[in-house]
Amino acid sequence: MPIPVVLILACALLWQTIWSAMYPRTHPGAEDLTEPPSAASIRVSSLDESVAYAKLMNLTLQAHDNQPGISLPFRHLDYVRIEAWLGRILELDPTGQYPLLAASRLYGTVDDPVRQRRMLDFVQRQFLADPNQRWQWMAHAAYVARHQLRDLPLAARFAESLRLHATSRQVPAWARQMEIFLRADMNEFDTARVLLGALLASGQVTDPSEYRFLAGRLTELETRRGPAGK
């Protein structure tokens, strides 16, 4: 190897040694999630490519809990800012489903009821903005409230919102029927009977097997008495 090259490599090695001694390596630390970019700054930097910018924000947020040398549990994340990021992403790309998927199935699974409820409330607010396209996340929110939070009234409220607002024929029957069975689980048999009777009378149930099943449940409910009937 030519002598000049050897001298250059030796100088580089010496400089690296001096630099490492002057600035010792620190232990990795978690960086806080910043506020999402403002709508005005996004318009300038995205050059009107808002959907593409939304995808970039998706990736940035998704990678936040895995930082160099450290992995953050969800319960240590700032959920106020996470909600702000998810909301801004939906503003940029209203047809995108990732923010609602992340809220209900990712951040909403944290073992922290306060954080879970924040995510579920976020899902409900965003569901109301476009019910027929976002119904599946409202249904999942009702499931989480029922089976993870063990909060039947909250689950019933979500299911009621689903029944009232998700009116498209593309929304499956089981999603619109969730409230009936949740009301029955809450011993609100009178309400469940009224809802189920109205559903059967509406003509929306056209499958014979499904109709027989629901009619059987109605008969079962009619043999019971809710608090108002005692």
Which descriptors apply to this entry?
single chain; mainly alpha; two-stranded antiparallel ribbon; 67% helix; 230 residues; disordered C terminus; 2 strands
Distance between the termini: 98 Å
Give the overall shape: elongated
Helix content: 55-70%
* pLDDT < 50 stretches: 23-28, 226-230
Structural class: mainly alpha
> Which H/E pattern describes the elements?
HHHEEHHHHHHHHH
Strand content: under 5%
Q: Major sheet: order of its strands?
A: 1-2
Radius of gyration: 27 Å
Query: Treating each run of at least 4 consecutive H or I residues as one helix, how many helices?
Result: 12
Strand segment count: 2
Q: How would you characterize the largest beta sheet? A: 2 strands, antiparallel
Structural features, described:
This protein has a domain of 132 residues. The protein contains twelve helices and two strands, in the order H-H-H-E-E-H-H-H-H-H-H-H-H-H. Helix 6 packs antiparallel against helix 7. 27% of the residues are buried. It has a two-stranded antiparallel sheet. The chain is elongated. A hairpin with a 2-residue loop joins strand 1 and strand 2. It is mainly α.
What's a concise summary of this model?
Helix content is 67%, strand content 2%.
Give the arrangement of secondary structure elements:
Layout: H1 3-22, H2 39-46, H3 50-62, E1 66-67, E2 70-71, H4 79-92, H5 98-106, H6 113-129, H7 131-147, H8 152-165, H9 173-176, H10 178-185, H11 189-202, H12 208-222
Antiparallel strand pairs: 1-2
Helix pairs in contact: 3-4, 4-5, 4-6, 5-7, 6-7, 7-8, 8-10, 10-11, 11-12
